[in-house]
Amino acid sequence: MQATAVVNGREPMTVVARSFSVKNDYRAYSSMPPHHLARKNNGLVNGLVKSTKVPRPIVKSRNQLKERVTLVLPDKAKEGADEEQQSHLTYVGNESMPITTELKIVLPEDDVPRGTWPVFRMMDESGRFRRSDAAAPGNSDASTFNNLPEMYDLSQLRSSLISRHPHFAAEFESSELLRPSRNDYPDTRSTNTLLRAHRQMIRLRKMDTILHNAQRQGRISFYMTAHGEEAIHIGSGSALKRQDVILAQYREAGLLMWRGFTLEQFCNQCFSNDLDLGKGRQMPVHYGSRALNYQTISSPLGTQITQAVGAAYKFKLDALANPEKEAAIAIVYFGDGAASTVDFHSGCNFAATLKTPMIFFCRNNGYAISTPVKDQYAGDGIISRAPGYGMAGIRVDGNDVFAVHAAVAEARKLALRTSAPVMIEAMTYRSGHHSTSDDSSRYRDTDEVRRATDVSDPIVRLDRFLKGMGWMDDSAVASIEDEERVAVLRAMEGAEARPKPRLDAMFTDVYHEKPPHLVRQEEELRLHLKRHSIPYH
Amino acid sequence: MILRSAAMSSSSSRSALSALLRRNALGRRQRRRHLPAVPLPLPLPLVLRSHSSAAAASSGSAWQPRRLEERRDRPRDCDYDHDHDRDRRPPIADEPDYDTLGPTSRLNLFTAINSAMRTAMRTDPSAIVFGEDVGFGGVFRCSQDLLEEFGRDRVFNTPLSENGIAGMAVGYASAGGTAIAEIQFADYIFPAFDQIVNEMAKFRFRSGNQWNCGGVTLRTPCGAVGHGALYHSQSPEAYLAHTPGIVVVMPRGPRCAKGLLLSSIRSKDPVVFLEPKILYRSAVEEVPDADYEIPLGKAEIVRTGSDVTIVGWGAQLRTLQATCDLAAREGVSCELIDLRTILPWDSECVVSSVRKTGKLIVSHEAPLTCGFGAEVVATLQQECFFHLEAPIQRVCGYDTPFGLVFEQFYLPDEKKNLDAIRRVMDYSK
Lengths: 537, 429
Description:
Chain A is α/β, with parallel strands linked by helices. In chain A, 42% of the residues lie in helices and 8% in strands. Chain A is built from 19 helices and 10 strands. In chain A, a hairpin with a 3-residue loop joins strand 1 (88-91) and strand 2. In chain A, helix 11 (303-321) runs parallel beside helix 12. Chain A is globular, with a radius of gyration of 23 Å. The relative contact order of chain A is 0.14. Chain B is an alpha/beta fold. A 7-stranded mixed beta sheet of chain B has the order 3-2-4-5-7-6-12, sandwiched between helices. In chain B, helix 7 (109-123) runs parallel beside helix 13, helix 9 (162-174) packs parallel to helix 10 (193-200) and helix 16 (347-357) packs across helix 17 (372-383). Residues 1-14 and 19-58 of chain B have low confidence and may be disordered. Classes of the chains: A alpha/beta (537), B alpha/beta (429). Chains A and B meet through helix 11, helix 12 and helix 19 of A and helix 9, helix 10 and helix 11 of B. Chain A: Residues 199-502 form the Dehydrogenase E1 component domain.
């Protein structure tokens, strides 16, 4: 056990992690993506529909995970109100960052935080809101609810949270997550934003798992999961306005989901069928939607960063021309790896000098494919660069959906008020592989992954909160998971059954109008297909 | 070179020398800004020319570029379109009729570019002009006085980063605006290649026509200028032309430039607009004051002829025009075609001409291998195989970097082109 912990020359893992390594029997059923298991089981690939010797963990692992959660939590629960809340966030490579409950965006004129930038967090891994930094230990904040808010009543929940955690009053007050929508959400047929957020995080996880497996079965060519980063997608997506344009990297499908992209649309893209908005041209996960103001993904890293500056500049001029119109920002997402690209530097420098209203959102998930952050940069993450550009910035716990939401909402306001960029660095962990072409068990410690999936996982955390409040129990969560799993499978089967796009789509949209040489080339191809009786429509 | 000559002039002062060395140590980008400071009557940034005129005057000039003298002696006027055979040229669809466009002004290339940008900005409130040093008018003066008319929000400097400029242009256009961005020299467009090739060119296609960046026009000065050497002389049109999704344009003179630039700015496709910097000051034409557009993707027959077809673009047209005159003295009638748009190029125009003449010469400044001439030749041999009476000739730059003192030997000048004409004519004797 101890030996496991010091493998790879690492420091011994935290207490929590060690308590896991005792339970070796759970390893085979960990909640890690199935491919891990496949590797561990003589290379047998786990089947989604066809059963193999490998256990199918899609639902099962979830249940097991919950068992494990209950195994861990009692230790903490025993300590109850006197428990010392976590003071530091442990990051990849055992880096630790102080946790703060103060939502403070460091402005360019402010003093830069001493040492490591603190991480803004509202909710602990236990699913309880933190007591204020200033409060003495043993305060009642960490204890469970005495008067539970009426089931599913968001307004009551908000006011009860405000009264219990006055240091987060502003965050709760302005949180869209705690505000029912005016009309029913089309996908959940309810106005409950928080429960929709919870469900969408699960939906995203299910979609990722199932489509990942579909790739393993050869049904789609490629896939990338967002395992472990769901809180970033849903937390930030819910804090943005529809007029804000999103320029994402490729691991931000949840933002599109939050804006209303349906499972059918996701699957149509991944299966490159005739309903794919991208007309079957791009690899899976390269989603985009003009209607949802989400620019189409491109594979090259970082290129969206400088583009976001241009879009934000347009919004800035629009705001000057029409001050009464609702102002918009551009938000650009990128990873810790993309922050090393030339576009990151150019983009930050342009945005700060040209004063464009936008958010630079870094998902620091610890890895760029196999390269851990220690090989990516030597400074204090990405956020420490913001002051150098003359840019405001804040570091946030990316696995805390409330903190991400609050930080983005605040950053959005600041960006509009000052007409200037704000950088957010969300600390998270890529619990899945980089893509289906990657096997992360070759370069990282499974204990590290396990810690992320079991302890700091964003869905687990929100589950714990909702359960603590009495809004959810194991069976409710399990039935949501089941519903979503079925919905994804249905969408996938529908998408798979549809025909491929017409051949026209190969030559159109290269230019606004098809130039003569493309007309000729298309004719040539059609003749060729005809001559050799190659079927196509 | 500047360094050496300036150092010689300030023979006594050791500190002046060390100051110069310090300047030299500022880094590539800083240095290159001082590089075009050789005192020659060429289209150089005004401020830079005044910068080192004293140093250059006393340099004792051991280097006499014959080629430059020749260029200086050439008539400044480059009025191709009023040639005697204008009526014999086949009409081009959508081509403006200059006779009906109203009053004209005598403009050189940079003022014609300036006029086009001004016209575009007056007619399109979302049009912005930006790039390195654009605010004060640009190092080649193309954006002069635009800031005064349109304000700092619409005409502005950016930090020194070409990929940033291109990326910003793409983003601005994606949000519905018209971005007229300047890359200070085509030699420095390469850091922006990722944005051009992977983003700009594919923006519409990859999104299934949901998103586009057709509002982008990337202007950049290219080509030999007499003393630009490796990094102020290149013509990267062939690199760009290998990229489906963008339009690549190169004008041959002021009037052509204004119409083409206005079309480029208003085009629904992203355009890279290459401006031959040698022409900025040296080419002068009567340019209509009106707002007019020249269609993209259409070549123009600049001079009709029956013996040889000669194809070129940009500043090379001036050389080829002179070549045609030399050939005429030998009794050879040349048909001269300006491609104007490199991508998508007007193969139809060239094919029909070669079917008539049976002989083709393609000439460009850029290196021979994989230059855009190769594309023209490959298409023409396929389309006109049985019409060809002689092997197609390419008269191009050599496959070497652009050596400073060797420019006169490097360039595909009139004599090299005349030799090519003689070679193809020999076949049909």
